[in-house]
């Protein structure tokens, strides 16, 4: 069981890194970091198409990564 969880953890980690790197940048320097964060927080920017898929995939892979990490730590 530990081996299966460890292999799945590596696969999910590589997938999560890939999905995060595929996402486009949303800010343009320091001014984008200040003003863009507030717009994202209030939900004024809507992701469409590929951006929406990458956003949802990031959330799913992050949750899987967290659960698998706890599983591997438990079996150690």
From TrEMBL:
GO cellular component, one term: plasma membrane
Membrane topology: Multi-pass membrane protein
Membrane-crossing residue ranges in chain numbering: 53-75
Gene Ontology terms describing biological process: intracellular protein transmembrane transport; protein secretion; protein transport by the Sec complex
Keyword set includes Transmembrane helix: yes
The family this protein is said to belong to: Belongs to the SecG family.
Full protein name: Protein-export membrane protein SecG
Biological source species: Texcoconibacillus texcoconensis
């Amino acid at each position: 069981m530990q081996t299966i969880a460890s292999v799945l953890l590596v696969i999910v980690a590589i997938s999560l890194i890939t999905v995060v790197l595929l996402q486009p940048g949303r800010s343009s320097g320091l001014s984008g970091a200040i003003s863009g964060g507030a717009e994202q927080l209030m939900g004024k920017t809507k992701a469409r198409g590929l951006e929406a898929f990458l956003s949802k995939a990031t959330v799913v892979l992050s949750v899987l990564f967290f659960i698998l990490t706890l599983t591997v730590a438990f079996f150690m």
